[in-house]
Specification:
The protein is mostly helical and 146 residues long. The protein has helices at residues 2-16, 45-58, 66-80, 86-101, 107-115, 118-133, 135-144, and strands at 21-24, 29-31, 36-39. Helices cover 65% and strands 8% of the residues. The chain starts with a helix and ends with a helix. It binds zinc ion.
């Protein structure tokens, strides 16, 4: 049941940081400037797979599920937003969408490059570091969210 998973996800986030606001939505998203995370369960297999590939590229044997890592990635945006240039990010996004629209890159390629944009990459790295620093916490919530 998604609503139970949502409530668990909210509890997990509040245990990490009480100040983060959590809302139910269609998909996982975040508003870093407002410290707000949206929890959603609309999955895209290709996006999940390319994200998982990137996580495996950054770390060995990451045993946590996509939801846990996805939530930590969104939280990561909140804590890393000041390290990266948002305007550069928006320019890069525009370029990726333009290339995709012209069919010069595939949806997979677009996602590949998207995940490696500095703003996305630092959030994923934050998530991985969090799992490494808090293995007990992550093991517990990984079970609750699987
Ligand atoms: Zn992201």
């Amino acid at each position: 049941m998604n609503i139970i998973k949502y409530l668990r996800a909210k509890k997990m986030i509040k245990e990490i940081d009480k100040k983060v606001k959590v809302k139910y939505s269609k998909r996982l998203e975040c508003e870093p400037d407002n410290a707000k995370v949206y929890i959603g369960f609309k999955n895209n297999k290709m996006e999940n797979d390319t994200f998982r590939d990137y996580v495996n590229e950054l770390t060995r044997n990451c045993k946590y599920n996509d939801l846990l890592l996805g939530i930590l990635h969104e939280l990561g945006h909140i804590y890393t937003i000041e390290q990266v240039s948002e305007s550069e990010y928006l320019q890069d996004i525009d370029l990726l969408y333009a290339l995709r629209k012209e069919d010069l890159i595939s949806a997979e390629q677009m996602n590949y490059f998207y995940l490696r944009l500095p703003l996305e990459s630092v959030a994923t790295r934050w998530a991985i570091e969090f799992t490494e620093l808090n293995p007990q916490f992550c093991k517990y919530w990984n079970k609750k969210l699987s």
